[in-house]
Every structure is written in C-alpha cells, then in structure tokens.
Amino acid sequence: MEKAFKRLSLNSNEKEEKLFNFEGFKKSKLPPPPTLPQEFKDVIKSLDGTNLVFLMQKNLSRDDLSRIYNRLSIPMCRVRKGFLCRVRKGFLSSKEKEELLVHCKKPVLFVEPSLDVTKMFMRRLEKKTYSSYVLVSSQWDTIWRRNNLKEGDLVQLWTFRVKENLGFALVRRAEWL
C-alpha cells in the first residue's frame, strides 16, 4: 500500500500542492506538547532523570510490533520540529554520535507504559529514501506483549537524561485521555 504526504509552498499567494510518495511515510500535524502523566514523571525522577522533552506521537505500525525487527521506529518525519533542531545542534553529545557511528548502537534506558524500566539500544537506520532512529532490543517482543500494545495504538515518546545517559519513556495515550 502506498502512502503519501503533501508539501505546501507559496507561489504568488497561491498554495501549490506537490504529492510525494514514500512507503510508510505519513505527515501529520501534532498538537502542542502534551503533559507527561505524573506516574511517568515520578519514575523518571526516581531515576534522577532530567531534561524531559516530548519527542513524538505516532500510531504503532506492524513493523513496530514485528518479532523479526524487534524495534520501535522513530521516524524523523514524526519528530517535533523543535526537537530536530536540538538533535542537529547537540541533543546527542559528540560521544553519543561517535558511539552510534563506531558501535552502531547506544544503550538507553526505556520506561515502558507499565512503568517498568528496561534497557534498549538506540540505532540509526539508513534507507535510500529516508533515515530514522530505532530503539532495538531482543526483548522488544516481550515488552510490547507485556504492555498489551497493538498495531494502531497511539503512543507518545519522551526523552530524558540520567546524568549523561539518554532515556526514553513510551506512553500509551489511550490510558490517560
């Protein structure tokens, strides 16, 4: 199935639409940054976490819940624009960038929707038409099953720091709306 998004540009006070087709790529407008549920704030605080930032909101895809891939994708098209600037201007430290280049993965903390804290790895995924980050774990299948995550579930991904280490929190939006 082919998915598409529209790019709008101004041309003599008229909007010109151009259609670009990319498999699995879908543009959407995100609402203003939401508030993280207090239970997640408490868990992150107990880890001595700081620098809490809303990263993205998305519906889980079939690939996110695949036993073959064992990963949660972080498509750059879904990442909030302000966050992208921080990525480019140093959200990842020089050491982290080097670690991703040299070792191809970086260990990160991961707060599950159940509030359990596990370890995952962050990797950069390069494709011909796009690049993204992914959170990978051999236990991802166990994690999403334990949290009863399903294809199409609306989730939010938050980032935080514990000292110099990067962490992520996955919030299942339906649980707190």
TrEMBL record:
One Gene Ontology term of the molecular function aspect: DNA binding
GO cellular component: nucleus
SUPFAM superfamilies named among the record's database cross-references: DNA-binding pseudobarrel domain
Subcellular location: Nucleus
InterPro entries, alphabetized: At2g31720-like, DNA-bd_pseudobarrel_sf
Superkingdom per UniProt: Eukaryota
Keywords annotated in UniProt: DNA-binding, Nucleus, Transcription, Transcription regulation
Record has Signal as a keyword: no
Chief location of this protein within or outside the cell: nucleus
PANTHER family: B3 DOMAIN PLANT PROTEIN-RELATED, GAMMA-GLIADIN B
Name of the protein in question: TF-B3 domain-containing protein
Source organism of this protein record: Corchorus capsularis (Jute)
